[in-house]
């Protein structure tokens, strides 16, 4: 097969169906941009999980005098020194515990004033109303239930709280948004495939005389199909290249410059350029193979070769 013939046929086909080719390019670009975006969103959520789960603490809040009067968990009175020593000793014996930090009422009051000093409630609080607590760093954040089972309901313990539960709600929201993006991506891919099939069929129909002559002179099925398949592949590759450009531009303007989220949201550990660059070959490969395969299967039935 002469490469010059195939290339000339590709150019002819793309020019004849310029409007539909443009639609294919745009739909492929948008769908693959969403595809790459959903992959990067998954990486971002996993990065944030690893970053924040490593920092979460389990807190054992101890009963104070105010709790003894109002909280059923503290019906036996405020925590005693012996109870605090026993709790600390039991925590030190547990294999799941990495570090234990004690926070006194004065320290809790100081931290509260630093975080909520502007709150109307802050002016009415006194240090003796705050709770003493043990802040526990676990070797595995998933082992929270071990601490809860061991200390919930113990004398002197008001409650056991896991910060991971708060983060889980955030990550559920992010995962929900990611799945929504994937649903839109799947819809766009279906639209792109339909456009590719229709474009190839229109192109084949407009050149039915040429393909008929080629069939009469004994041209092989692949020789006849190759220009149409490569037309679809070229259009898809252009769309894939645009999708890669969208992702690079989005990463540059949203995180590094423009909105500069990396500077404004310093508590979030954003994914780096390496995560974006590793997705580009997959997007380009998909943009090349998806239209080519769609055109191949469409032509087998349409041209009957």
UniProtKB/TrEMBL annotation:
Residues 183-301 form the ABC3 transporter permease C-terminal domain. One of its GO terms (cellular component) is plasma membrane. It holds the Pfam family FtsX_ECD. Residues 56-160 form the FtsX extracellular domain. It is found in: Cell membrane. The chain crosses the membrane at residues 21-41, 179-200, 221-254, 280-299. GO terms for biological process: cell division. Keywords: Cell cycle, Cell division, Cell membrane, Membrane, Transmembrane, Transmembrane helix. It is a multi-pass membrane protein. Coiled coil: none annotated. Forms a membrane-associated complex with FtsE. Belongs to the ABC-4 integral membrane protein family. FtsX subfamily. Part of the ABC transporter FtsEX involved in cellular division. This is Cell division protein FtsX. It comes from Streptomyces afghaniensis 772.
């Amino acid at each position: 097969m002469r490469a010059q013939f195939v290339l000339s046929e590709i150019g002819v086909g793309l020019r004849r169906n310029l409007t539909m080719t443009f639609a294919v390019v745009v739909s492929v670009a948008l769908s693959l941009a969403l595809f790459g975006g959903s992959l990067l969103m998954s990486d971002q959520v996993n990065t944030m999980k690893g970053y924040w789960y490593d920092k979460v603490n389990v807190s054992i809040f101890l009963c104070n005098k105010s709790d003894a009067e109002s909280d059923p968990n503290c019906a036996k009175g405020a925590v005693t020194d012996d109870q605090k020593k026993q709790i600390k000793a039991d925590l030190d014996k547990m294999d799941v515990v990495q570090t234990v930090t004690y926070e006194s009422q004065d320290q809790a009051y100081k931290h509260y004033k630093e975080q909520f000093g502007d709150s109307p409630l802050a002016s009415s609080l006194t240090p003796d109303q705050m709770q003493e607590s043990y802040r526990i760093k676990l070797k595995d954040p998933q082992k929270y239930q071990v601490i809860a089972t061991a200390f919930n309901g113990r004398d002197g313990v008001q409650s056991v709280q896991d910060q991971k539960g708060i983060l889980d709600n955030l990550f559920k929201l992010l995962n929900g948004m990611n799945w929504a993006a994937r649903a839109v991506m799947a819809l766009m891919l279906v639209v792109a495939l339909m456009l590719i099939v229709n474009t190839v069929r229109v192109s084949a129909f407009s050149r039915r005389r040429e393909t008929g002559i080629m069939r009469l002179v004994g041209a092989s099925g692949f020789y006849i199909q190759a220009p149409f398949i490569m037309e679809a592949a070229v259009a898809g590759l252009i769309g894939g290249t645009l999708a890669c450009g969208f992702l690079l531009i989005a990463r540059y303007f949203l995180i590094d410059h423009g909105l500069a989220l990396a500077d404004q949201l310093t508590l979030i550990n954003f994914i780096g350029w390496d995560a974006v660059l590793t997705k580009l070959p997959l997007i380009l490969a998909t943009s090349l193979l998806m239209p080519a395969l769609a055109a191949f299967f469409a032509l087998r039935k349409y041209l009957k070769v």
